[in-house]
Amino acid sequence: MSIYRAHILLPIDEGTIQSGAIEIKKELEKRIEEENLKEEIKILETGTIGVIGKGVMIVVYPDKVTYYNVTKTNLNNIIQEHIIKGRIAEEVEHSYEGHKPVEKEYKNVGLTREQQRIVLDKCWKIDPESIDDVLAYGGYRGVEKIFSESISPEAVIEEIKNSGLRGRGGAGFPTGLKWSFTRAAKGEEKFMICNADEGEPGTFKDRLIMEGDPHKLIEAMIIAGYAVGANKGYIYIRGEYELSIKRIQKAIDQALEYNLLGKNILETNFSFYLEIKKGAGAYVCGEETALIDSLEGKRGYPRIKPPFPANKGLWQKPTCVNNVETLANIPEIIYKGSNWFKKFGTEKSTGTKVFTILGHVEYPGLIEVEMGTPLREIIFSYGGGIKGGKRFKAALVGGSAGVFLPERLLDVKMDFESLDESKAVLGSGAILVMDEDTDIVDMLFSILKFFAHESCGQCSVCRIGTHQLLNLIYGIRRGQAQEKDIDQMVKIAETMFDMSLCPLGQSLIMPVKSAVENFRQDFLNKIQNKNN
Amino acid sequence: MKLEDLRKIREKTEKDMHLRDGKARIKIVVGMGTSGIAAGARETLKAFLEEIEKRDLSDVIVSQSGERGLSSHEPIVTVQEQGKLDIVYGNVTAENARRIISEHIVNGNPVSEFVLEVKE
Fold it and tell me: Which terminal residue of chain B has fewer beta carbons within 10 Å of its beta carbon, N or C?
């Protein structure tokens, strides 16, 4: 290792970059090379030195002289005078005290860390209310490709199948396969539905897509409608999403004006119409058959399956229902090809996933990362760790009907298969982080209250079961329970899993069982009145 | 409309954007999703427009976008300057917006304390 005579520190922060620090660095390296000083002088990039408004700065050590407002012209002066002759370049503004670099890293901590964005790539770049802006940023390239290369609907489905895309609404059913069922179903009239009911507490990924890039959803619906053979599509948006509804409606109007929707799209033989249906805030309407009932104007009750919506859906006609995030992947897959998409994620869970990080973390918010990113990385690198430096206790993964994951399962990879192995689910991608002060019993109580309220009441197992569970946990919280009541809760949830009609009742087993298995002590404390 | 017309619009807008960028030195993009608006993005946007009008900055344009998921840092504003890296600011209240105009847009010194990210 060679010993350097002097070090030149070049602070790189947003201020100096704006003033041209990168060019100065290149120039500096070039000049040092020219003067044959490479063996003697070392150039170091540092963080900010806490001085702003002084342009590009360089600090020369060991003399501890800081030069301000360095330009290519006076840089030469500094090199000639200070570096070569060893005296201070008086003509350039400077100070003697020297500055210690301040540690500041905004690129590696928190939500600004590098992410792989496919679904949300344009969300903060474009003006969502301008179709021209969207076109200039590459919107509708998927539709353009299909019609200019005359790709058949079968080939579109084949491409989606090959991409390995799976439903992002929770169940993870292969999207291409779902499309092929609707395509193969007998019937003249078919429907395409987008499920934008996003009722899962703590999830807001679909809202971001609809607000930030509504045309992406319109484009995906056109492609999906073309593939399954539907001429009419519905976007079922929850009523509370006023801004989403406004922007989607505006996007539909603009697309109609540009003939991207309507009769004979872009003068082809394919016609497609889109309509928005506002949801009225029932959690159960996120289930696809209840959603279809609600669309028909009825009370949202889940239907008995089979027949599946692919054969008998809306108005008993073949129907395909997809989640917003699933659809948002479609245009890029069509435009860039399924092999491009397969490069992201794991072998069986391809692509990316949007996660909402909530609860006791430094930076609550939303990220899109590749499938298979470890939970620890999501919570600690993106979320910034536990708020206030406290200890991690549990994470509720997958929405309210998700699984309480204890610390020992923090390294689980977030994809369909790995989570399945840990008896957890990806669900809607909500990650609710709880610190050491959180009581799991209280947490489970609020979940059970929510489900008792949202149970539609159609099947008795769910209607009665949710209230039985609520009664038991009431007792436990008051300390008026016995230890066997804890196990009774799991038994009830198991019965509900076996007998309920729809996922609302079936999925309660996950939070109940995981809470009891992993945090039994919390329940015992309540019963023994230790915590009250 | 035909496929070719769509391509023409795409190309024309791309060109227009360059032209627009050519005239405008700086583009300020305010994140206007639900989280942004709830955190006060409308006031931020208004402050930018007021300040631009007051100072008669003819080479600055203001635009809107959706949100990007950094909910805890809303309202979020991106300053795009030709030939320079984009600077993303967080927690831009109306007051901070005025500081960004005076320190960054007018004097060219980004306000370090609000910067979340510098990117290409």
Answer: C
* Signed CA dihedral, A217, A218, A220, A221: sign only: positive
Domains of chain A (ranges plus CATH)? 6-95 (3.40.30.10), 131-342 (3.40.50.11540), 352-435 (3.10.20.600), 440-527 (1.20.1440.230)
Task: State the virtual CA torsion across A47, A52, A54, A59 in degrees, nearest 10.
Answer: -30
- Counted residue by residue, chain B has a size of 120
- Strands A392-397 and A403-406, bridge-based pairing: antiparallel
Chain A: residue nearest B83 by CA?
A18
Q: Which residues of A touch B103 (CB under 8 A)?
A: 53
- Whole-Å CA distances, A487 to A117, A427, A460, A484, A494: 43, 25, 21, 5, 11
Please judge whether A124 and B29 are an interchain contact, meaning their C-beta atoms are less than 8 angstroms apart. yes
Global ipTM: 0.75
Q: What is the DSSP-derived secondary structure letter of residue A80?
A: I
pTM: 0.80
C-alpha dihedral (A413, A414, A416, A418), degrees to nearest 10: 20
What's CA A111's distance to the chain center, in Å? 11
Chain B residue nearest residue A112, CA to CA: B117
Residues in contact with A416: Cβ distance below 8 Å, sequence separation at least 6, in sequence order: A166, A172, A348, A349, A371, A426
pLDDT digits (tens, 9 = 90+) for A266-322: 989 999 999 999 999 899 999 999 999 999 999 999 999 899 999 999 999 999 999
- Please determine, looking at this structure, whether the domain spanning B32-119 carries the CATH number 3.40.50.300: no
- pLDDT single digits (tens) A49-82: 666 667 888 888 777 788 888 888 888 888 888 8
Cα A36 from Cα A30, distance rounded (Å):
10
> Going by DSSP bridges, is the β-strand pair B26-31/B60-65 parallel, antiparallel, or unpaired?
parallel
Q: Where are the beta strands (DSSP E) in chain B?
A: 26-31, 60-65, 77-81, 86-89, 115-119
